[in-house]
Write a structure and sequence with these properties.
single chain, 1 helix, about 180 residues, signal, DUF1080 domain-containing protein, nine-stranded antiparallel β-sheet, mainly beta, five-stranded antiparallel β-sheet, Jelly Rolls, about 10% helix
Length: about 180
């Protein structure tokens, strides 16, 4: 009887759906955050930038990872600071991630010469305190920012290539499942 019960429990555990930590990117996409450290990222600076490889936080904890591997912008640590990918992306790129804006969130993204404010008071499709899906598609010289499937803005790309930057300005925000696909 005990053997049958153990086998039944094992079957249920194996058949259980994968958790959030088991997220796999879509075909052709590459994860941009390990969830453990800032491999592939650097601090944004006027000249170059300090590599963040192997570090679990940046700017004294302004950017850090939570226990689930999500990137956190901590409002308790003050500072208007930026991190950016080491990798540069071209005008033919798709970037996707989920973000969880907290109260007072007003943080920014920079991509292909565009500054995009993640400010729920200005973006009606953003739900504060809930996970939102961001899709940034650069194609044919235009960069389109979509949130929860709704176009928030489209801009002409101002540069041929750029890094992806996150700016911690005001309020909290978490980011998970950050991934990119490049090429046609």
């Amino acid at each position: 009887m005990r053997l049958i019960l153990c086998a039944a429990v094992a079957t249920v555990l194996v058949a259980a759906p994968a958790g959030a930590d088991d997220f796999a990117p879509e075909p052709g996409f590459k994860m941009l955050l390990s969830g453990k450290d800032f491999a592939g990222w650097k601090a944004k600076a006027a000249k170059g930038g300090e590599p963040l490889e192997g570090k679990a936080e940046a700017f004294k904890g302004r950017f850090k990872f939570n226990k689930d591997g999500g990137l956190v912008i901590d409002p308790a640590v003050k500072g208007d600071v930026r991190i950016e990918t080491v990798q540069e992306f071209t005008k033919e790129t798709v970037i996707r991630f989920d973000f969880l804006p907290g109260a007072g969130c007003n943080n920014d993204l920079f991509f292909l010469g565009s500054k995009f404010d993640i400010n729920p008071t200005q973006l009606k499709m953003v739900k504060v305190g809930e996970w939102n899906a961001m899709d940034i598609t650069a194609s044919g010289g235009t960069t389109t920012f979509k949130i929860n499937g709704e176009t928030a803005r489209s801009d002409k790309a101002k540069t041929a290539k750029s890094t992806l930057e996150f700016r911690a300005e005001f309020g909290s925000m978490e980011v998970r499942r950050l991934r990119a696909k490049t090429g046609g």
